[in-house]
Amino acid sequence: MTSYLKSWFTGAPSASAVLDVPTFLKVSPPASDDGEDTETDDSVPAFPALNSAQRAAPTPSQAPLILSDSALMPPPPVPSLASRISGVAPRPASSLLVPTSTTQRPQKPSKKREKVALSPGHSPLDWAALKSSGVDLRGVDSLSRIPPSVLKQHRSKDDAWTAINGKVYNITPYLSFHPGGERELMRVAGRDGTHLFASTHAWVNADFMLDACLVGFLIPEPSSDSP
Ligand code: HEM
Question: Is there an atom of ligand 1 within 6 Å of 187 CB?
Fold first, then answer.
């Protein structure tokens, strides 16, 4: 047995190791679909099949080369443990990956825009429903021309007006619906809020949000000496 294995690895055929591969000349045909097997021959098929890859395997003289450990492909490099900092995850090998950690301190949330919890029934959808319900949200019979002095008189929560882009709105009904809270919205009550509004959320369409609350148009203060 040992000499046989030796001859296999070295490729030298030994006298005692003669591969005696039996040759089958007859192979049984595949069974027919209808199950009617006309052949009464019960010979077993050759295994491996006569034309199989196994039979075409190398002879002892073509024995496969077995590589030693040093001839094999080296393993991937071990990440350098020396450069690791305690408590900090190692940097990924690819610079395209997201860094696993950062040395920057998290930024404090901006104080400028804080969301407030709106009371139930005061979502933006509820506001849209109220606007289209036909309920009077203006509090005036007709639109008028409003100078800053008149606007100034409407600065209480129950009666709050503001001017945005030249239009004056009654913001009292919107106070409890404002996602930024009543307090923030009241900052523009009784005055022109265009600048503050735009610097807080320029993307909000005040014209659309408050169309049902329009009370008039902001005009310059009439000069006292005019007739
Ligand atoms: C007068 C008309 C105003 C209308 C129609 C209005 C409308 C809105 C709307 C629709 C949002 C939600 C925006 C979003 O989710 O992106 C919002 C958020 C907010 N508003 Fe107003 N706003 C008005 C005035 C103001 C004013 C004068 C201030 C304060 C100076 C203010 C402060 C805020 C804040 C802080 C938020 C933040 C919440 C967030 O991050 O969404 N708003 N406002």
Answer: yes
